[in-house]
Amino acid sequence: MDIIKVSGTSRTSAVAGAIAGVFRENKRAEVQAIGAGAVNQAVKALVLAKGYLAEDGLDTIFTAAFSDVDIDGKVRTAIKITVELRNGITE
Fold it and tell me: At the N or C end, where does the chain have fewer CB atoms within 10 A?
């Protein structure tokens, strides 16, 4: 499963669609964002994706964590957000 990488200029609706698509296929999705603008876009996309998935009867939760990422030989701290089913139950 690929990590969905979000930038500060990412379109929230496009990212939300990607999150929902990956989640429908794998019952899990991971989103990565580095920087305040990227985290802002990611959170808005996650909220949209939660709505898209709720229409399919999928109740999701998000868990955020720090993650070190190597970019061009420099270690950066990213926010990694994991999307999973709430209690593993589909409605």
Answer: C
Name the packing angle between helices 36-54 and 12-26 (round to 10°): 50
Token pair of 66 as six digits: 């720090």
Determine the Cα–Cα distance for residues 35 and 21; give it in Å rounded to an integer: 24
Count of structural domains within the chain: 1
Of the chain, the percentage scoring pLDDT greater than 70 comes to 96
Name the residue among 42, 60, 43 with its Cα closest to residue 51. 60
CATH number at residue 60: 3.30.110.20
pTM of the complete model: 0.90
Q: Residue 9: phi, psi to the nearest 5? A: -105, 5
Q: How far apart are CA 13 and CA 23, in angstroms?
A: 15
Q: What are phi and psi of 56, to 5 degrees?
A: -95, 5
